[in-house]
Amino acid sequence: MLTLNEEKRKMEAILTSMVDAVIVFDLDARMIITNKAAENLFMAREGDLIGKKLERIDYSGQIGAMIFEVLRKGNEVFTETTISPGRQIFRVHVVPIKDEAGLIEGAVAVFHDVTDARNFDQMRSEFAGNVSHELRTPLTSIKGFVETLLDGAMENSDTCRRFLSIIEAESDRLTRMIDDLLCLSSIESKERMINPQPVCLNRSIRSILNILGPQISEKNLHVEYVYPPDLPRINADEDLLGQVMINLLDNAIKYTPPEGRILIRCYRRDSRIITTFTDTGVGIPRESIPRVFERFYRVDKARSRHQGGTGLGLAIVKHIVESHGGEVFVESEVGQGSTFSVSFLIA
Ligand SMILES: Nc1ncnc2c1ncn2[C@@H]1O[C@H](COP(=O)(O)OP(=O)(O)O)[C@@H](O)[C@H]1O
Ligand SMILES: [Mg+2]
Does the pLDDT at position 298 exceed 60? Predict the structure, then answer.
C-alpha cells in the first residue's frame, strides 16, 4: 500500500513528465492542480495558476464553457481549438471527477498539441490537390489533340504527325511525373533503404555527362568539370547520388540558352565535398529562390512544361541530399545564371 504522501509524489512525478498540459478544477472552476506543461502553455510561473479562476487561462471563453458544462452535466467533452496568443492547435479533453456516490467533484482538462498533425494533414491534402491538377494538365492536352485528330485533322499527314508527337511528349511527361512522385514517396516513406557507401563523385559526374551528352551538344553548350586531383570518396547511395546530379545538370541544360556555359566543380570543405553546378542561364528571380525546392514550384510554368519538366526535380534533390546528412544551396541572378550546390559527407 502506498501512503498518501507517496501517492501524491507519484502523481506529481507523472504530471510533471507529461507533455500534455493538465489542469484540475474544483466545483467552483478554480484551478487546484496544474502541471509544468500547463504553466508553460499559459505562461505562468510555478504554482501561479493554483487557486486562480478560469478567466486566467480562458482567453476566448470556449474552455470555460466546456468546464462549466462538465461540472454541471458530468459528461465528457472534446474540442479542437487554438489557445491565443499562441498559434498552436490543441485538442482539449475535459472529463468530470466524481466521488464514490457519483457526485461531481471537479473536472480535469487535458490539452494535447495537435499542431503538427493538423499542418501535416493540410499539407497532405494540398499535395493531393496539386498532384491531381498536375496530372490532369497533360491528360487534358492529350485528349484535346486526340479529339482534333478524330475530327478530321488525321487526314493531313503532317498535322497528324505533329499532333502525335505532342501526344507522345505529353505521355512521356506523365510517365516522368509518376516516376518522380513514386521516387519522392519512396524516399519519404523510408521504404527505399538508403544504402550509403564510399562512392567516387568523378565516376558519377562522368556518367551523367554521358547520359545528358546529346542534350548538351544539341544546344551547343560548353560544359566544364573541375575537381582536385585527390578528391576523396563520399558517403552516398550511388543510385540516389546519380539522381541528384542528373536533376541538377538537367536543369542547368534546360534553363540555359544555346551556346551557354555550364561549370561543374567539386571541392573539399572540412568533412564535406561540395559539388556546384553554375550556368549562364535565365536565372531565378529573388522572390522565387526560397521556393524552387518546393514540389511543383516552377518560376515559369509554361516554360518548364514546354521543356517536359515535372516541377519535382529539385524537391527530389533536396530530399535525397538531406537524407544523406547534406545540404543544398542556390544563388542566382536573373539573366546572369544560377549556381546550385550540394554537399555530401566524406566517406
Ligand atoms: N539552373 C536553373 N536556372 C534557372 N531556373 C532554374 C534552374 N533550376 C531550376 N530552376 C527553376 O526551378 C524550378 C523547379 O525546378 P525542378 O524542380 O527541377 O522542376 P522542373 O525542372 O521540372 O520545372 C524550375 O521550373 C525553374 O523555374
Ligand atoms: Mg528539373
Answer: yes
Would you say residue 84 has pLDDT above 70? no
Residues with a CB atom less than 6 Å from ligand 1: 247, 251-252, 255, 279, 281-284, 292, 297-300, 304, 309-315, 338
Q: How far is CA 98 from CA 52, 70, 91, 102, 104, in A?
A: 21, 11, 23, 5, 4
Ligand 1 atom nearest to 305, measured from its CA = 23
- What is the CATH number assigned to the segment(s) 195-347? 3.30.565.10
pTM: predicted TM-score of the whole model, two decimal places: 0.73
How far apart, in whole angstroms, are the C-alpha atoms of residue 87 and residue 93? 19
CATH class, domain 4-113, is: alpha beta
Tell me the pLDDT tens digit for each residue of 169-222: 999 999 999 999 988 888 877 767 788 999 999 999 999 999 999 999 999 999
Buried b (16+ CB within 10 A) or exposed e, 226-264: ebeeeeebbbbbbebbbbbbbbbbbbbbbbbeeebebbb
Q: Hey, where are the domains in the chain?
A: 4-113, 114-192, 195-347
Q: What is the mean pLDDT of residues 78-105?
A: 88
Distance 14 CA to ligand 2 centre (A): 51
The rounded Å distance from CA 253 to ligand 2 centre is 10
The dotted CATH code for 114-192 is: 1.10.287.130
